Amino acid sequence: MEQILRIPTDRGDGNLLRAQTAAAGLAVNAQLRADETRMKQVGRRDVLERLLAMIAEEKAKLADEERLERGETEGSVNSGRQ
Questions:
Q1: What is the pTM of this model?
Q2: What is the radius of gyration, based on Cα positions, of the chain?
């Protein structure tokens, strides 16, 4: 394909023009598919990063709640003993 595209265009050679047109079309389509795949991967990464951030946030909230519950329990136990 690369060799065909490097040949200078000759309007009088229909076979060469068809080959160059086909090669150019294949190159453009291949690049479009690669770009589309790359764009889909970026979207997936964004979603995954957001999900991981949400999970971390929820874990932190749960840890805070557990600390508060333990603190209240310890406080009520200590106040009951005094």
A1: 0.46
A2: 32
